[in-house]
DNA sequence: CGAACCGATTGCAAGATGAAAGCAGTTGTG
DNA sequence: CACAACTGCTTTCATCTTGCAATCGGTTCG
């Protein structure tokens, strides 16, 4: 694991040393909920428009920290598949409660917060089911998970709800 | 509320725009679990050694964002009392699950993670009780909350456990 | 053989961070 | 009533981080 500062041994402090920047959790969110597994997908399909050097730096750091793994894509000798490692998969509850907080207190858009709402309402059972799905997509068979040969039922439901809201609120897009 | 970037309307993204730096959540943690309510307390009793200019900037930003409030201390015309506002109080579940994650995956120290452990084991009922306590200390009567005239039972339990571990692991300190 | 695509890297400017010192005013002490 | 300690900050300056734009060498596809 790459060096973090270790200003103190407090769990909150250490978590902020690992995740306390503007991009790391957003990248993990895209891998987790958008199943973005390649550099280009993360770069160009990012809602927030991350810069390529920042993305490269974040991915390298997350790999060094053991939150993400990187392997070759057999379909393309230059492509790399990025996958969530177990510690990142266990961030599901963190993202769920953080999303729930953001939805209550920040100026979110309806389409981008429907998944946070469902994840909050689904509670612990849904989080566990989602984490099991993620283990299949990212740990068990990363290649099939990356190319869509296997899918997550929980993620499919979330995505379906997202598409439905998007179709309703922005029929043209 | 002060301007945040608003790169997107995603709850996770917005939460990271508000809390995604190395210090904001640490400051909130100290106010919440350490009941640090004055600038000097936050500055000198910080485990991580925050710099005074950074602390000043963070407090100003958190006040502007509506997470923290600032008022005069009647006991000292120059003193300011900083209190958690409702949105920050509702970060209790976030800090609880984030602490639980940090405790599992990062090199925490035993004494500084006992509170995270208790908070995780206490679950939702304990979080609710703690949030009620915080409302009394920070919203209902900030002055009495700041000077110790009223205390939080939940916090007292957490602090007691912390002191016990500290006495066991570092008898001299 | 050229265009599009692959995961990055480089240069540069702007902004954030952090250590240290300092500030003007207030309070407690001898 | 002088004075030291303490109050919440602010300033300065050197260093580190961030983000944009352009680009890189290689691969794949038509």
Model description:
The structure is a homodimer of 173-residue chains. With 173 residues, chain A is mainly α. Helix content of chain A is 64%, strand content 9%. Chain A contains nine helices and two strands; from the N terminus they run ααααββααααα. In chain A, strands 1-2 form a two-stranded antiparallel sheet. In chain A, helix 6 runs antiparallel to helix 7. The longest helix of chain A has 31 residues. Chain A is globular, with a radius of gyration of 16 Å. The model of chain A has no long low-confidence stretch (mean pLDDT 94). At the A-B interface, helix 1, helix 2, helix 6 and helix 7 of A face helix 1, helix 2, helix 6 and helix 7 of B. The structure holds a DNA duplex (30 and 30 nucleotides).
Please give the number of β-strands of chain A: 2
Low-confidence stretches of chain A: none
Strand order of the largest sheet of chain A: 1-2
Largest interface: A-B, 47 and 47 residues
Tell me the distance between the termini of chain A. 42 Å
Q: In one word, what is the shape of chain A?
A: globular
Helix amount of chain A: 55-70%
Count of alpha and pi helical runs of chain A: 9
Class by helix and strand content of chain A?
Answer: mainly alpha
pLDDT averaged residue by residue of chain A: 94
Note the quaternary state here: homodimer
Element string of chain A (H = helix, E = strand): HHHHEEHHHHH
Radius of gyration of chain A: 16 Å
């Amino acid at each position: 694991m790459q060096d973090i500062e270790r200003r103190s041994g407090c769990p909150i402090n250490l978590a902020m040393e690992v995740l306390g920047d503007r991009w790391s959790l957003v990248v993990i969110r895209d891998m987790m909920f958008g199943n973005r597994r390649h550099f280009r997908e993360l770069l160009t399909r990012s809602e927030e428009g991350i810069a390529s050097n920042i993305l490269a730096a974040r991915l390298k750091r997350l790999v060094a920290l053991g939150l993400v793994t990187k392997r070759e894509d057999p379909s393309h000798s230059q492509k790399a598949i990025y996958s969530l490692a177990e510690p990142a998969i266990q961030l599901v509850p963190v993202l769920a409660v953080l999303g729930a907080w953001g939805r209550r207190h920040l100026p979110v858009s309806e389409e981008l917060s429907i998944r946070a709402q469902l994840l909050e309402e689904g509670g612990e059972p849904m989080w566990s089911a989602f984490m099991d799905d993620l283990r299949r997509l990212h740990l068990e068979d990363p290649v099939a998970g990356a190319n869509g040969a296997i899918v997550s039922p929980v993620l499919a439901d979330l995505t379906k709800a997202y598409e439905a809201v998007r179709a309703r609120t922005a029929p043209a897009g």
